[in-house]
Amino acid sequence: MADRHNTVSEGIFAGFIGATAVAVWFLIVDIVAGQPLHTPEILGRGLISVLGKIPMMPDAMFTRVAAYTVFHYAAFSLVGIIVVSIVHQSARTPGILAGLLIAFVAFELGAIGITTLFTESMFGGMAWYQIFIANLLAAALMFWFMWRRHPHLGRDINAALGGTDDD
Q1: Which has the closest alpha carbon to 96: 83, 105, 78?
Q2: Residue 158: count of CB within 10 angstroms of its CB
Q3: Cα(100)–Cα(149) distance, integer angstroms
Q4: Does residue 92 contact residue 155 with C-beta atoms inside 8 Å?
Q5: pLDDT tens for each residue of 71-81
Q6: CA spacing 20 to 30 A to 144: which of 12, 20, 43, 138?
Q7: Which residues of 37-162 form beta strands (DSSP E)?
Q8: Which pLDDT tens digit goes with each residue over 105-146?
């Protein structure tokens, strides 16, 4: 089945689903807090401080939000491509999905750890549970997309977790 799917385009689409889930979640959180676009603005400020300011770009909220949004979607696209590659490989070797599950749990624990560090920095307005919920929403929607695109995924997950992977 993997040969009927383009890994890059499917991964980018999955990444856009996850990135949009996170963006919409934080838009809602920011609107409820009375500060629309606050989260991408402070993350953009941090990103620009790490990467360096581009001389011709104005130091404005729009610039910070746009810079972070491009980075956010690019990062999620990369994650999507990796996940799609693993799902395509699972059609041949279902056991690889057990490793993906372990990597997902490790990633979530790492995200919580990084969020805890961020609460002590300029990102103090971001609660760990808000980021955790955003990550879970993104993961659930990306998984749903992969589940719909790859009908064999359920069988492969059962084989991977049940130890019945014959390859």
Answers
A1: 83
A2: 12
A3: 18
A4: no
A5: 999 999 999 99
A6: 43
A7: none
A8: 887 787 777 666 655 565 556 677 888 899 899 999 999 999
